[in-house]
Design brief:
This protein is an all-alpha fold and 421 residues long. The chain has one domain: Na+/H+ antiporter like domain (Na+/H+ antiporter like fold, Up-down Bundle), CATH 1.20.1530. The protein starts with a helix and ends with a helix. The C terminus is likely disordered. The protein contains 17 helices and no strands. The relative contact order is 0.16. Helix 2 packs parallel to helix 11, helix 5 packs across helix 8 and helix 6 packs across helix 8.
Amino acid sequence: MAKTVERLQEYSIPLILGVLVAVFWANVAPHSYHAAVHAPFHQFGDWLHAGSQMEVDHDSWTHYFTMHFLVNDVLMVIFFGIAAKEITEACLPNGALNPVSKAINPLFATAGGVIGPIGMFLGLNYMFGKAEWSNGWGVPTATDIALAWLVVRCLFGQSHPAVSFLLLLAVADDAIGLGIIAIGYPDPHHPTEWSQLVWLLPGMGTALGLRLWNVRNWVPYVLIGGGFSWWALYSAHLHPALALVFIVPFLPGPKRDEGLYEHIAHAHHHSPLEAFEHDLKRLVDFGLFFFALANAGVAFSEVNGLSWIILASLIAGKTIGISAFSLGAHAIGFRLPPGMTAGHVVVTSVVAGLGLTVALFVSGQAFTDPGLQGAARMGAVFSVAAAGLAIVARNAFRIEKAAEEFVESLTVHSEPEQAEG
């Protein structure tokens, strides 16, 4: 049973299943789907009894007891907290961002993975789109960490350097995506009240104090520090899902990074930073079913040109931007990781076009009109096609899945070179 649960987590089955259920439900019974997601829980039974004419009350206190609010504003706090944990560990010794010289080429690629999709979106929207679609520029900037990691491992092998390259790229551009959500998409109905961000100070101060007192349990950091941080963002009318981004870096962590996601395979999680992910990752992985259920329910009738512009910006924009910036950096002296070729870069950049989870999230922030939200979200859902296109690209470049012994030899031979740097 335990192995089955681990497999479901490893292959992101809850997320994929949530997308399928949401799309099916939204197309077969759209009224009940809308009520299940947006109606307060105690009103859903009344809605079923009264029929689809019953209006959902969004203005009363019962707003807080909808699936949409609890998933997007509460559960996703943990999701983005775990993303912040990956960034924090990447900055540790031996991490993908430490020393900085080690990360220069992937960070060039990250810049291309943001600039390319934004440029393609704005260009395509200018030529074929509409003015009211222009706010969707941030939707294609992020990469779905879990699914992209799964795909690139299947393509190249679990320990190939392209896996770390992709993970660094995904974590970094998702960090940029967090900034886009916070700054680029404030709530248009409630102007940002920047003064409320003062509540971040007691939150971060509490987390710092707990660290200085060597508190070895992540719970008070998250509940107390995270609580202040959540209220700061919520009362400022910024998205509270980003609350733990300001708290997680204070959690005591390991002395060095053992590799992104590598710790999942080990039984020991000594530091509060590692324990935070270990204790909550299963909740998030299975909770992503409800995230997909609440956000991916789009009727096919809502698919329009915006959907295809976002899809093209995710896949073509990421492929062109990442490949151009990474290979350009390599040409001027910031070399690719040992074992990676131009073909690996192109295939990895196609995989990075898989923007499902965060793209769905940003779609909900970019547009207030339900029709535009639906069209944008369907573009994000369609981006799963990046996995199939990556297989085609790998075959076109005739790249074989690397044996683990070969990958280990690359690591061994690259160590003296890194030491000299």
